[in-house]
Amino acid sequence: MDNSGTYFVAGALPEAATPTEPLPPWTSTRVVGARLPRVDAYERVSGTAVYPIDVVLPEMLYAGILRCPHPHARVRRVDLSPALALPGVRAAIGPDSPGADIPWYRAQGRAWSRLLDRHCRHQGEEVAAVAAETPYQVADALKAIAVEYEVLPFVLDEEQATAPGAPPVHEGSNRVGEPAVYERGDVAAGLAAAAVVVERTFRTACELHAPMEVHGSVVRWDGNRLTVWDTTQGVFAVQAEVARALGLPLAHVRVIGHYMGGGFGAKLEAGKYTVLAALLARATGRPVKLFLPREDTFLATGNRPANRLTVKLGAARDGTLTALEITSLGAAGAYPASAAATFMATELYACPNVRARDETVFIHAGRARPMRAPGYPQCAWALEQAMDELAGKLGMDPLALRLKNVPRTAQRRGNLPYSTAGLEECLRRGAEAFGWERARRARPGRATIRRGVGMAACFWGFSGGPPSTAIVKLFSDGSATLTMGASDIGTGTKTVMAMVAAEELAIPVERIAVEHADTGTTPYATPSGGSKTVPTDSPAVRAAAAAVRRQVLELAAAQLQRPVEELTLREGRVVTPADPSVSLPMSALEGLQRQGVLVGVGTRAPNPEGTVTIPFAAHFAEVEVNTATGEVRVLRVVAAQDSGRVLNRLTFDNQTLGGVVMGLGFALTEERVLDPATGRMVNANLHDYKLPTMLDVPVEMACVAIDRPDEAFNSTGTKGLGEPATIPTAAAVANAIFHATGVRVTDAPITPARFLAAAGGKRG
Length: 764
Ligand code: MOS
Fold this sequence. Notes:
Layout: H1 41-46, E1 61-67, E2 73-79, H2 81-84, E3 89-93, E4 103-107, E5 110-114, E6 119-120, E7 126-132, H3 135-144, E8 146-151, H4 158-162, E9 180-184, H5 187-192, E10 196-204, E11 216-222, E12 225-230, H6 235-246, E13 253-256, H7 272-284, E14 288-291, H8 294-300, E15 307-315, E16 321-333, E17 354-362, H9 376-394, H10 398-404, E18 409-410, E19 416-417, H11 423-434, H12 436-441, E20 449-459, E21 469-475, E22 480-484, H13 493-505, E23 512-516, H14 533-560, E24 568-570, E25 573-576, E26 579-585, H15 590-595, E27 597-603, E28 616-626, E29 631-642, H16 649-668, E30 700-705, H17 729-741, H18 752-763
Parallel strand pairs: 1-14, 12-13, 16-17, 22-23, 29-30
Antiparallel strand pairs: 1-7, 2-6, 2-8, 3-7, 4-5, 9-17, 10-15, 11-12, 11-14, 15-16, 18-19, 20-28, 21-22, 21-27, 24-25, 25-26, 28-29
């Protein structure tokens, strides 16, 4: 399905290892499902956790990147010598230096640029790099490099890119590949049969990921072996790309990503900064630290592309959908990336006649990367506002309209049934928790300040799968280490995986240490992204712990002279439920003492065939709008989430509320602003790029966890959460604004100016 490929960076999905025996579902749990604080909470909040930017190595140099200030330019001349003449500067590389021609931005069977390319296609494109003894000397050296640019004409948005005579970003047209068209049934017939039709065009803004942790690496060579401390969601993806770029065997590139300060999709791939740091480190024989200033992360580490979406819906008098047409035009930035945004519309509601078209174009701005549910919040913004409008035209409650059209099967995927289908339950239980019926009936009134409520729904299109391998080691005192390749990108992965192992081993979470995200020491994992880390990796973790558990029970059976079937584990002991006299601490197992450590390896079983497994959500929002100033306050949000079994209710709520807050930014404040005259981003900083802050977060936010284990899907019964928690929020807010004011604002974010413009237009 679209976008899923973005989470498996190194080409095709690797084959799964032979899965270990499938495990029966848990019948009851002691640890899993509890509200437990994170295993590394203290380290994270106290500042003692060592993130990559905190790594300091003996003899380490600092490095920085010189970037093109223009949206489109050709580098005529670069003179590195003034920089190299400065005190403390140890190396500088430019477009003619060895390594500068490493192919970069590979797509459609070719590379679209080089590590340091003379042709710069966006502001912030890498031109040169330096290494020096101190960060200040780096800054001076970057200023000293003399560059002569030939400034070229540019296109900044999807309309300019497709206008006749537009400057091409690459040779040929500005289209990134051919438009993707999906069709089922007969849309024209469906529209002809409709009693009511709505059609509207929407636009979403380009958003930046803005994770708290900036991008960067610390690198060190040992002979021809490279170690990288990297800010990444996937150490194995970075290993593969860095090894390929530098022509090294995979085994000679070790990538470590222990603590990680958020990525949201901006850290799924290797950065040029890592390879530049490695080249500078090789040139100087010294370790190198290269971290991006915040401004550079806004320019060159990805974004959620802007989309222009047109939705046309037809429905019968009773609300049954008869036709759905959606087209999207998205801007990938200067290099190939997906700006597709229509997939969700083709499966969220039951509809026999559907047409969807996605077109992506190049512009002279930083390239898009996946960003928390790539394409889906954009799709929800358009589809769920159109559904709201359709409900209005039909005189139906928006919730009732959605309930009328809940799909029974995955209509685009062979009409397969969902292994668990929580959309209806999210709609019903979310509405109940929110008090939808009553809130919706309240009349907004004619006062200047008006309140209203709105809702929207979503799914996220997949839930991961193999490969995943985990290792559990049980020590002779009954404590254990869990070793896994997955990164904890701030979501609590280490915590919930430790809980899964603790459940299976019947020991407290405090007795488990987690080793993770290190290509040198942990088994392979795909990047943490796509809301798939828990459903992909937790079954492997469970299987690894179960393999240890089996060995413990077998050793105990031999020692106690009892059949293994009579034995089980409880609170760190081997017990016989039928005979209370049998109670042996694991540390008293003779076999364990002799062996020192028991090792269990778990691999994830394949997904079942014949079903589709995806998470669902429905969000409800109440807003207050000042119709004189256009100011919007979000008063409360309820997020109902069907993500299968809840492993830890604290981290579940945390993920959900974080997703909601990100959705509020999409709805109201976040937007990359490019100056039409210069083509430069004018708000590449955290002051002018408006992320929601504590003051923008509603006091009342609540999460309704459906918490129904998806037993058929995997051995932990889990589905994804991170992305469905943000997809429908913005549309729910826009619908609430309409309910409050009667003003439909089609363009995100709904700034006061946009609201007033739309309100003025309505007044004529
Ligand atoms: Mo992602 S877009 O890191 O799930």
